[in-house]
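Hi team,

As requested, here is the filled-out complex form for the adenosine-5'-diphosphate run. I kept the field names the same as last time so the parser does not choke. Let me know if anything looks off before we queue the next batch.

— J.
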Amino acid sequence: MAIEFNHIVKIYPNGYEAIHGFDLTIEDGDFCVLVGPSGCGKSTTLRMLAGLEDITHGELKIDGKVVNNLPPKARGIAMVFQSYALYPTLTVYENMAFALDLAGFDEDVIESRVKETAAILGLSDYLDRLPKNLSGGQRQRVALGRAIIRHAKIFLMDEPLSNLDARQRVSMRSELVKIHRNVGATTVYVTHDQIEAMTMATKIVCMDVGVIKQVGTPEELYFHPKNIFVAGFIGDPPMNFVKGSVKGKIFTSDLGELDISGIPAGKLKNMDGKKITLAYRPEHVVLELPEGAKKEDYLALDAKVEVYEMLGDVQNVYLDKNGVKSIIKASPDRKIEIESDLPHFILKSDLHFFDTETEDAIPE
Ligand code: ADP
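And here is what came back:
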């Protein structure tokens, strides 16, 4: 079912305005991830959608109907929290059957739904176990099962993976994507972790204190961030930023004068003299020009190596030049020497430019 937020504002009873006018449409079947730093209003938004928090102004629609005043139970929503909230004395079967029992379903309907749900979640062999005899990942799946079994049209999830260890988190990410594909319910998922957003979402909503900074697919946010906030939030290590200004084909900053001729014509038009931030991702840097590459297609930089981290598949190299810090990725077999000068190159088409004052991307 589609969900529509029309200029939603949330003011808490203490007067704090947590959400400043939220406009968003989530399509039927979307896996929509609300992502942003702690305190930006993700849970508040989710709780308003669930009906657990009043909406101060604006209109919330589910499936075309205004639901501002509809109680949580009447919204057709199932919610999975960070703490799984399983009943410790009930088996996996009983935990999953609980809501259907309460709703007065027949025993044979309950049994077939529990079996069907357990099969989707890989829990068929664990139906007689108590939660304490399950791993964190299995408990998380039971919690999901309790949501799925109700055949809810909308799933809400608030940081559901945060209690799992790193390995379980990675495997649950792909499990959730598969489950979403099988079940097809519209899902709204809250996390502060941009990797979860990038790996699971069909639609990412990137938030900063009380406002949406960008909505789009993972590819759109990664390749075309609309502002410095999104550019710096999506990607790990984060994007590098260099503040300076443009005159003609020269970008002047603490790195000196850089030749940026060849940047798409319209892009920096009318930017002469304005404060501009040039940006590039660590993974878009190369240490040698590829064979046959044209030198003029690349921006040439150099900087001193401060530290490097060998991660196995890649090295993160931390650089400094005249106080401008940057991080680049290098292949693991490349010998890096601390304190040495490291020339490096970035394809000009991989550069991003932002207006330093408004922090908005400079359009093509
Ligand atoms: P997030 O989920 O992104 O971490 P929250 O939605 O929990 O953020 O909180 C958003 C902002 O609203 C925070 O500044 C938080 O302190 C504030 N807040 C949350 N709940 C209340 C409340 N009941 N009363 C007042 N302020 C609140």
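Two things worth flagging: Residues 166-183 form the longest helix (18 residues). Residues 237-355 form a domain with the OB fold (Dihydrolipoamide Acetyltransferase, E2P) fold (CATH 2.40.50.140).

Thanks,
J.
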